[in-house]
Amino acid sequence: MENNDDTKEDPQSQVKNSVSMEKNCCNEDTFRLHMVTWNVATADPPDDISSLLHLNSPKTPDLYVIGLQEVYSAPHRFIIDMAVEDSWSHLFMSSLAPRGYLKVSSIRMQGLLLLFFSKLAHVPFIRDIQDTYSRTGISGYWGNKGGVSIRLSFYGHMLCFLNCHLAAHMQYASQRVDEFEYILDTQTFDPKKTPQILDHKLVFWFGDLNFRIQDHGMHFLRNCITSHKFNLLWSKDQLTMMKKTEALLQEFDEGPLDFQPTYKFDRFSDCYDSRPHGTWLGFHGKMRKPAWTDRILWRVKPKEPPPEEEKDEDRDSVLDEKNTKKKQEEEEEFPLKLKQDSYTSNMEYGVSDHKPVIGIFTLELRKMYETPLVRVCAEGEWSADFDAIVIYSPLQPFPSSAWDWIGLYKVCVPGGIHECFGLHYLHLGEG
């Protein structure tokens, strides 16, 4: 073979071209996210949730996030649910596990339940998982209202999912905003990375936010709904109105409300609340107006502002400037985009006086890493009914601990990632 020295590139040019090609090849990956919020009004789950999860759709989600409110939590039932998986969690797990999804995390606070499922292929790249909760019922002492959240790193991008149930009734719109601000202030995570909810690159805020449609009478409301003229109601939706004056709410986006208000229905019916105006001793004597109480909003973290030119040359200011610059470089190198593909309600389910709301999203990002933290393999061949030696080796440097352990998981674990059938603690000095 003939060599042509004239066509050879110098080493520096080769490196530059290689880096350039690598950057061009590192296109963003897209992931499909299926979100559900549903106030289940203490009801038992339906027999089938295929329609709710779009299980027959040709486009399968990468992630499922399900937020429920008013899961039945009478003291005796709540204690049982803490010992044994509650019926709602069991239903979602039994529906998704056979399709290759794993329950990565869940958190419950009385009637509030948040579940996070992922395709098995993504699990090694979901890290830094934490959950927390805030009570807002009875001045913060009771958990019938409040928020539960799960935060995690997905291929290096910090995401947070906040499921809320805020104060009810028409006249408490301002209180609902105050409760949301309280939840944001009180929920904290690992201080080294993203200590608070709004520090995350992407935040989803959803649940029974309880905002109502004010000023319009019942007759006008129902006529607009029957004729599908939902846009005539948007200007009097309390959340839409509050966004005009509340800077915090303006940071959150929401798709158009092109679906029927999801509250309040007669159970097992598509009819809105039809109770008589007066009942015995005055109980349940007020007919509730339809409202979009159940919502899904999101916030992509704004870009870091450039550091000020004139700063005191003290150590703290220099560190702040370096951190800001580092974050800016990370945003440019590893961008994240979100697009909502659909935002709708599901009218098929009648177990509750609320209808579930579904949001489908496309998450576009550039992965910060694609290598698992650890490689685990058997020494030699490993067949059923025979013992084997398993060797693990870290693929990335990370600090070891006396509490490190290896868990062997079934592919479809009924209880999720925290249930394993093998557990071995490692002692310092063993690798």
UniProtKB/TrEMBL annotation:
This is Phosphatidylinositol 4,5-bisphosphate 5-phosphatase A-like isoform X5. One of its GO terms (cellular component) is ruffle. GO terms for biological process: negative regulation of glycogen biosynthetic process; negative regulation of insulin receptor signaling pathway; negative regulation of phosphatidylinositol 3-kinase/protein kinase B signal transduction; phosphatidylinositol dephosphorylation. Residues 301-335 have a biased composition (Basic and acidic residues). It comes from the Eukaryota. Residues 299-335 are annotated as: Disordered. Residues 29-369 form the Inositol polyphosphate-related phosphatase domain. It comes from Salvelinus namaycush. GO terms for molecular function: inositol bisphosphate phosphatase activity; phosphatidylinositol-3,4,5-trisphosphate 5-phosphatase activity; phosphatidylinositol-4,5-bisphosphate 5-phosphatase activity. InterPro entries: Endo/exonu/phosph_ase_sf, IP5, IPPc, SKICH. It holds the Pfam family SKICH. Belongs to the inositol 1,4,5-trisphosphate 5-phosphatase type II family.
